[in-house]
Amino acid sequence: MVALVVTAAVFVILFVRIKSEASSTLTVMPFMADTSAFWMYYLSQAFGWSALLWAWGTVIIGLLLSGPRPARLPLSGPRLERLHRTTSLNTIALIVAHALLFAAELIYQDTDAWPSRVGTAVLETFIPGGYNSGTGVWAMPIGQAALYLAIPLGLLFYVRHRIGPKTWRVLHRFVLVVYILSVWHTLLYGTNVWYDGAFRNTVWLLQLPIAALFLLRLLRPARRSERLASAGAHRGSKAGWGLRLTGRVAAVAIIGVLVAVIASGRDGGRTVPPEDTSSTHVHDD
Ligand code: HEM
């Protein structure tokens, strides 16, 4: 419910920005100014943003569950766990809504016979490589990979007794890859964060708390056996110890890269074209 309210609020913001011609979506794709034709596209964008926000939140909660937790946190462990479960399920639903609205918009714009419209939309939305717009070559498969990995890595929780809790824990760690793919997809493809500016900077900045919590989670894991200096760690293999050390070094490196990107402003954003109204984003070929 909260997710839908947030999505609606984002939709209103995106819509108003389109109407007032402040939206960079219009700089990339001027034809998107027709609000009666493209409202589903803005709604898909809004679901993309709530999906990313929920993914961000659930990753933070997950890292608090598996790493150190501030003593003054008002939420108990079990409540935090429940919140992690519901926000994760919401994230998957929001991603699906984001993709389905994109497909719906393709169907709406198409003038072919119905079976062909639906077939093309499914191909372009859900099959990697199916959507060959100039800039979507990598961005689309990255988003699709995030969705397709999120489903098993999240939902395996419900069969954890069958696959074994340890296997579940090891596999579930890879949801961090889902999160990285989601952010990557957004920064590559989101037309609201296409250019250098406050929106794009905010997306980058929001990654700092995640990287910091990831480092803390590795330095002070909730599970004793994962600590570098614990008796369990010494009993474990040398390879395991090496892996844990590599993880910590990688986490520090990630924070370094994020700080460098944010401080230098070299964050992959394009420079806003001066008075160029020609589309750089081929939408429907
Ligand atoms: C089947 C999977 C996916 C498809 C087909 C898809 C499709 C798209 C498309 C076409 C855009 C460009 C919209 C624009 O013009 O701004 C986009 C942007 C975006 N996507 Fe996805 N996406 C998928 C997965 C994901 C996932 C997993 C997330 C995050 C959890 C996500 C979050 C976003 C966000 C935040 C934007 C930026 C929207 C904007 O700039 O307003 N997407 N996606």
From TrEMBL:
It is a multi-pass membrane protein. InterPro entries: Fe3_Rdtase_TM_dom. GO terms for cellular component: membrane. It holds the Pfam family Ferric_reduct. It is found in: Membrane. It comes from Streptomyces niveus (Streptomyces spheroides). Residues 55-182 form the Ferric oxidoreductase domain. This is Ferric oxidoreductase domain-containing protein. The keyword Transmembrane helix applies. Keywords: Membrane, Transmembrane, Transmembrane helix. The chain crosses the membrane at residues 46-66, 87-108, 138-158, 170-190, 202-220, 241-263. It comes from the Bacteria. Coiled coil: none annotated. Its main location: membrane. The keyword Nucleotidyltransferase does not apply.
